[in-house]
Design goal:
Layout: H1 7-16, H2 21-32, H3 38-46, H4 53-61, E1 79-83, H5 92-105, E2 110-114, H6 120-124, H7 129-134, H8 139-144, E3 154-156, E4 161-164, H9 173-179, H10 186-191, E5 200-204, H11 211-219, E6 222-228, H12 231-235, H13 237-250, E7 256-263, H14 270-285, H15 298-306, H16 310-313, H17 320-341
Parallel strand pairs: 1-5, 1-6, 2-4, 2-5, 6-7
Antiparallel strand pairs: 3-4
Length: about 350
Amino acid sequence: MAHDMSGEELRRYREDRGMNQQELVSWLNERLGRRYDRAKISRWETGAERIPQTVASALKDATSPVGIPAASSQRNAPLVLCAANQKGGVGKTTTCVNVAWLLSRQGQRVLLVDCDPQANATVHLGVDPHEREVAKETLTHALRSSRPMREFVTPVCDGAFDLLPSSISLAAADRELLRQPNGTLILRAKLAQLAGHYDFVILDCPPHLGELTVSVLNAADQLLIPTQTEMLSLMGIPQLFETIAGVRELVNPRLRILGILPTMFSPRRLQDEQILTELHAMATSESLRLFSPVRRAADYTKSVLAGRPGLAMNPNSAGAESYQEIAEALLVLGRAEMNHGA
C-alpha cells in the first residue's frame, strides 16, 4: 500500500478488515496518540481532506486486522447467510431449511441456526424445542455460555447438516441484549468460533426488527429477503433497507444483500402479478437480484409434519428452481471467498 493513500483505498482497507469508522478512529488514536473523530475519517474517505502520511504509513505497517471481523473475514470461516423480513409468514424458514438441504447435497458442511423464538426451523426439522430447552441445548444457552458453540448443535436429516435449535426462551434475549455492552455482537463472536468446521452458516431470523434481528445482521455476510407477493410484505422492505444501511455503516460493512425472493406466488392472482412487477422495479432500482418466484405448494406444508425439508421429500416441488438459484449463488460466493483467502 503506497504512503499516498486515496479515500477509496482507505474505505476498502477499512471494510476488508470488517471495521466501522469508529473502530478505525479508536485504533488510529491509540496507535498515533491523536484525537481523530468519525467526521475526520468521513472527510478522508470522500476525498474532502488529504490523508496524512503518518496515517497512511500506520495502516501500511499494520500486520493484523484491527477491527471486529465479520465471520468470513477470518481464515477458513463459513459464509454466513441470513434470511430476514420484518413480516412473518413470508417463507423465511422454508427457504432456510431447503437451501441448507441443497447445499449439503453439494457436499458442503452446513449449520442452520434457528434465531426465532417461535422455533419454526427447529420444529420443521423434527426437533422438539421443549426437550432441547430442558437439556440447555438451544441458541439461548449458546449465547449465554462460555462453552464452544459446536457443543449446542445437533445433526438433522440423517446427518445431512446440523441445526442449532431455538425455543421460546430466546424471546428474553432481546431484552438481555439491550442491557449488555455490545450485546448485539455476541452472536457474531460466537459464530467466529466455527471457522474450519462449516462451509456455510444459515441464520433464520425472527419476524421483526428487534435486537435479535440486528444481532443476526451484525453477524451475516449475505442477506436474503424472502417476501410474499402481497402488499404488507412489500411495504416492510424499505424499512429493512434502512436498517441494513445503519448496520453496514456502524458495525458490519461486509454485509451485502444476496437478493429478493418472492414467495407463495400464484400466477392466477392479479395481485400477485402486480406485486411481482413492483418487486422487479424495486430490485432494479436497488441493483439487486430478484430470484425466480416460489409458487404455492402443499409439499412444504406436508414436509413440516414429516420433519424434513420439502425438497428432501420431493426434489421437483414447486420452487425447487428458486432455491437452487440461491444455493448456486452462495456456492459461487463461497468459492470466491476461498480463492480470496488462499
